Structure formats: C-alpha cells, structure tokens
Write a sequence for this structure.
C-alpha cells in the first residue's frame, strides 16, 4: 500500500478521537464550565449535527478544488476547531469549536476515501479505503482512552491540545505524501447531485444507514446492559470497550480484504453475521464470558461492512464520487442516530436493556435484504448488457440458454 495512506489514516485517527473523547470527559467539562452533565452532553449532539449537515455543504462549496487541496483545508479546519476548544473560556465557544471540527469530519472521510481509492489499482480499492477507516477504529482502542486519561489527569484542555498536535502531523503528512491531485475545474454540483438518481447509489446509502444503525442500536446502551444484566462492574467497562475496539479494527481489515475479492458476497456475509450476533447477544448477555466474546464479535461484524459500503458508493457514483462519498458518512450518522433512538424506545417501553439488540438485528436484516436486492439488480443489468452486445454484434437476439457466461 502507498505510504500516502498512512497520512490519511493518522488524520482519520485524530478525527475519530475528537468525536469520541468528549464522552469520557463530560464530568470534567461540566464541572469546569459550571454547566450540567445534560448540557455538556449537547456537545456530542452538536458534533453529530455538524457531521450530517456540514460535510456535504462544505464539499459542495469546494467541489472544483483539487482533492489534495481540499484535504489540506479540511485538516486546517480540524486544527482550528480543536484550538478553539482548547482555548474556550466558556461553553458557547467550546460548542463552536466542536461544531467547527465536526464540519470537517464527514467531508474529510469522504474525500479521503476517494483519494485512497485513486491511489491503488482496482483490486485493492476496498483495502485502501479500509486503511482510512482503520484510523477511526483505532481511535476507539487507543485515541479515546488515551485522550480521556490525559484529560482526567492533566485537564480536558490538554486533550484538545493533543488533538491539535495530531492534526498538525496529519497536515504535514498530507502535504508531503499525497501526490498532486488533478484539477476538478469541470466538476459541477448538479453533476454530483445527479448520481443520487442512480438506484444503486440510493440502495448503498440505505444499506449504510441501516448497517451502522444496527450496530449502534446495541452499542449505545451496552454499558447498562453489561452492568445491570451481565453483572460486570463499571471498572470492567474500559477493557471491554477496548476489546470491542479491537473487534472494530479486525472487522474493518477483513472487510476491506474480502470486499476487493467479492464485494456483494462480503457485504451479505458481514450483514448476516451482524444479524446473528445481535440476536445471540440477547441470550449471552446473562453470562459474563459469552457476553464479552459476543461483544467483541459485534465489533468485528459491525465494521466489516464499512469498507465495502464506501467502495460500493464510490463505484456506483463513478464520474462524480466526491459528494456521494461524503453523504455516505452523513448517512451513517443518520443511521446511528436512528438506531440509538429506536433502541431507547424499546427500553422505555419496558422491554429491558437487551431489547436494543433485537432492534439492531431487525435493522441488520433489512440492510441484508437491500444488499441482496442490490446484487440482484446489478446481475440483471449485466445480463441485459450482454444481451444488448450480442444483438449489436449478431443482428438478432441469441437465446439465453446459448449465451453462457462469455469466453472461457
């Protein structure tokens, strides 16, 4: 793999850490700024809103810019957002810093995925995209725990200074290692928007939202499930979350490797596994060792879909992939919000802390059904294309039974 991918991975690591680290620092932030925990929690909601809305708008505004230039500007925005957060004298400026950082989140991951795919040949595109998202997965294992520890021991502002440092290294890596990108002077927002009329692009976006929603329907409420149902102590949650994070990295790596060989079968297998794991989690939640194993497998199955889904969108949006890739990140966040909301409804309905697992299993099964439908639609299109070629070459249709699969 090209060394340039490491710069994208490191930048993704910094962005992922920025998203998740605030969860562990909420009490520190709330106490220092004299706001309630609930008010501090809006820093997470504000970030999510910035990802969903800000990314597509930012990319649409800079659609003609060379992608390397766009990546550099996005990293500068990332640095500025974390700098504002580190220096924030009050809650309002901290929220501004968080939203500023969030604006570059989805845009960076989308543009970086397109650049990563362009850096390699067709047989390695999913693995290249997987490397970009490995940074985000590693943020769960290393970045967020490290940032939380730094913030708890040296002050939460030091955590944001650490993120500024990571951003500066990522910026330098992109400037030095990413090759010059072709001009996008002929790009048009209308052309980029036109790809959303393609059925396969819409299906891929829906698959993304449902698959990530399935994962987070369970993950959002895993802490009370593991403590109240499984019987783990609160202290045990940190190593369990690290185990889950390792599962994310493994799943992302495997998903990228096998998606390059057979994309739709890999997605279908991962989503089938996610459906089964979520359903099984309902029963293993009552036993500590099986619950820990299932939780790790949830990370593997949940992130095995990510490289393939992004590769699918980029390939089906051929000719104008940038905005589609960014919207895919927004779709994943919409799915995460939906999964968390539905999971919360099931708990409020009195169905228990394991009920979000069933919600997730239903969403994963729906994503699997869309994947099968997408694959069938593609196969039908290829067959129709072959029949058209045969008619064009021979002057008359050839019976399907005699067409075969082409030269052997």
């Amino acid at each position: 793999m090209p060394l340039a991918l490491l710069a994208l991975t490191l930048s993704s690591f910094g962005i992922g850490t920025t998203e998740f680290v605030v969860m562990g620092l909420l009490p520190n932030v709330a106490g220092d700024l004299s706001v309630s925990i609930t008010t501090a929690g809006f820093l997470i909601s504000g970030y999510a809103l910035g990802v969903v809305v800000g990314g597509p708008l930012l990319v649409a505004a800079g659609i003609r810019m060379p992608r390397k230039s766009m990546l550099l500007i996005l990293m500068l925005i990332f640095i500025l957002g974390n700098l504002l957060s580190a220096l924030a004298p009050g809650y309002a400026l901290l929220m501004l810093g968080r939203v500023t950082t969030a604006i570059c989140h989805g845009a960076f991951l989308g543009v970086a995925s397109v650049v990563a795919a362009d850096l390699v040949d067709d047989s390695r595109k999913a693995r290249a995209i997987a490397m970009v998202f490995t940074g985000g997965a590693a943020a769960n294992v290393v970045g967020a725990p490290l940032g939380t520890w730094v913030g708890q021991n040296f002050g939460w502002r030091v955590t944001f200074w650490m993120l500024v440092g990571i951003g500066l290294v990522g910026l330098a890596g992109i400037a030095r290692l990413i090759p010059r990108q072709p001009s996008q002077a002929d790009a048009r927002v209308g052309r980029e928007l036109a790809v959303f009329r393609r059925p396969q692009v819409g299906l891929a976006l829906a698959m993304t939202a449902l698959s990530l929603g399935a994962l987070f329907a369970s993950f959002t409420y895993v802490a009370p499930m593991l403590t109240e149902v499984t019987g783990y102590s609160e202290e045990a949650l940190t190593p369990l979350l690290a185990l889950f994070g390792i599962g994310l990295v493994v799943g992302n790596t495997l998903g990228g490797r096998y998606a390059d060989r057979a994309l739709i079968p890999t997605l279908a297998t991962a989503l089938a596994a996610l459906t089964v794991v979520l359903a099984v989690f309902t029963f293993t939640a009552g036993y500590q060792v099986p619950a820990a194993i299932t939780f790790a497998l949830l990370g593997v199955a949940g992130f095995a879909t990510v490289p393939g889904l992004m590769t699918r969108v980029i390939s089906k949006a051929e000719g104008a992939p940038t905005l589609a890739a960014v919207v895919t990140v927004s779709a994943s966040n919409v799915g995460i919000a939906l999964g968390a909301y539905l999971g919360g409804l099931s708990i409020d309905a009195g169905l228990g802390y394991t009920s979000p697992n069933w919600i997730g299993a239903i969403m994963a099964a729906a994503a699997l059904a869309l994947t099968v439908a997408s694959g069938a639609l593609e196969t039908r299109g290829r067959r129709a294309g072959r029949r058209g070629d045969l008619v064009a070459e021979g002057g008359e249709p050839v019976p399907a039974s005699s067409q075969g699969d082409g030269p052997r």
